[in-house]
Amino acid sequence: MTTSAVPGVVIVGGGQAGVDLAFSLRFEQYAGPVTVISAEAELPYRKPPLSKDHLALGATETEYLRSGESYAEESITLRLGVRVTEIERTAHTVTLDDGTTVPYTHLVLALGAEARTLPMANIPADKVLSLRSLADARKVHALFETAADIAVVGGGFIGLEAAAAAAKRGIKVTVYEAAPRLMGRAVCETVSDFALTWHREHGVEIVFGADLSEIRADGAVVGIGVTPTTDIAEKAGLQTDDGIVVDETLRTSDPAIFAIGDCARFPTGFASGPVRLESIQNASDQARHVAHEIATGECSGYASVPWFWSDQGDLAIKMAGITSGHDETLVLGNVDSGSFSVLCFADGVLVGADSVNDGKTHMTMRRLLAKGVRVTLAEASAPGFDLKQALSA
Ligand SMILES: Cc1cc2nc3c(=O)[nH]c(=O)nc-3n(C[C@H](O)[C@H](O)[C@H](O)COP(=O)(O)OP(=O)(O)OC[C@H]3O[C@@H](n4cnc5c(N)ncnc54)[C@H](O)[C@@H]3O)c2cc1C
């Protein structure tokens, strides 16, 4: 059965990237049909609160990305609870698991990612929970209501946010991290060390290198990273490599098909090779970029500054740029005061900053990166150096 005869933009995935794209297309005056197909039955929602206030406050209200009515107001067809199972690239159609077929002029894959999990020998499987979707968050919320003792596996952003929320609610919580430091893939050592002390002072026990088969608790939250969703792209013969591979315009190896958000691996001037980023900034900015390309026909390179935030209790961590390849750092401010930033340098040049309770430096860093201002370690180390002045230089 074919449900729509007029091609237009078909967006697979009703997460941040997919929904932002649909509304950005209308903002860009795109007049053709726009369809969002979402495997989840829920009206599209914001994910960040799921591991923060939602858990800490025991909040049950959901923050939806847009009201239910706004889709109809913008003539956006939202199909919930149906999954695209196949892309027919020659016919320019997608097939859904309800047997329907939808034609497209442009197809955008905003498939997101799935949480990785692992078995825990001493905790019942139904109490070993991931934290990726609203359905997951409801289960974690229910666990927090009854559990006295929770294990968090993984000392990354989501694990630490969940742990801080549990501790705030008076639940005994232990974070088990396999690597030698917290958030090791994403932040510099100074911020890892600061966070370790902060969490311990705020009631979170943290254990490095534990044997998971020994862990006993009423339940566990597993935050050990995600696997990008690429199944239908792979099946359609699109290039994938830990994500759907796109070029600088965010097109896949088929020019009629784009990929954005958590599922896309893209080239960027902010790193030495292609990256896949999991952040609201990345999902939203890529959505706006593709909307502009489709609506105007202009073909330009995506170049937004990457940034991310994580609220762990009262600890506001913000990152600007991609700092994973840095080899030297310089601290701005006083670590002991609890408000500071760490400038990260690669080959003597500033590539980004990790900030703790220091939104001002974070914003300045983003503006510096956006302007392409080059700051060297020697310049930043000079007495009287001011990051803001570097911006106006
Ligand atoms: C708990 C949590 C807290 C977070 N906190 C922060 C934060 O503080 N700051 C920050 O910057 N980022 C944060 N993030 C990351 C951020 O939310 C994600 O990077 C962003 O939501 C990714 O959006 P997306 O649209 O690419 O993917 P998703 O939101 O995962 O959406 C993808 C959607 O596509 C659907 N889908 C997949 N395959 C199909 C198919 N074949 N057919 C139909 N639908 C399909 C999926 O079901 C899903 O609904 C957080 C993420 C989580 C999970």
Question: Can you offer a commentary on this structure?
Answer:
27% of the residues lie in helices and 26% in strands. With 393 residues, it is an alpha/beta fold. It has three domains: 9-114 and 226-296, 3-Layer(bba) Sandwich (FAD/NAD(P)-binding domain), CATH 3.50.50; 117-222, FAD/NAD(P)-binding domain, CATH 3.50.50.60; 323-392, FAD/NAD-linked reductase, C-terminal dimerisation domain (Enolase-like, domain 1, 2-Layer Sandwich), CATH 3.30.390. The strands form six sheets. A five-stranded parallel β-sheet has the order 3-2-1-7-16. A five-stranded parallel β-sheet has the order 9-13-10-11-12. Strands 18-19-22-21-20 form a five-stranded antiparallel β-sheet, with helices on both faces. The chain is globular, with a radius of gyration of 22 Å. The model is unreliable at 1-5 (pLDDT under 50). Residues 12-18, 37-40, 47-48, 50-51, 83-84, 110-113, 131-132, 158, 229, 232, 261-262, 278-281, 283, 308-310 line the site of flavin-adenine dinucleotide.
Corresponding CATH architecture of the largest domain: 3-Layer(bba) Sandwich
Helix content: 25-40%
The span between the termini is 62 Å
What strand order characterises the main sheet?
Answer: 3-2-1-7-16
Structural class from helices and strands? Answer: alpha/beta
The CATH topology assignment of the largest domain is FAD/NAD(P)-binding domain
CATH class division of the largest domain = Alpha Beta
- Beta content comes to 25-35%
The profile of the biggest β sheet is: 5 strands, parallel
> Taking all residues together, what is the mean pLDDT?
95
C-alpha Rg (nearest Å): 22 Å
Number of helices: 11
In this entry the ligands are:
flavin-adenine dinucleotide
Oligomer: single chain
Low-confidence runs: 1-5
CATH homologous superfamily of the largest domain, by name? Answer: FAD/NAD(P)-binding domain
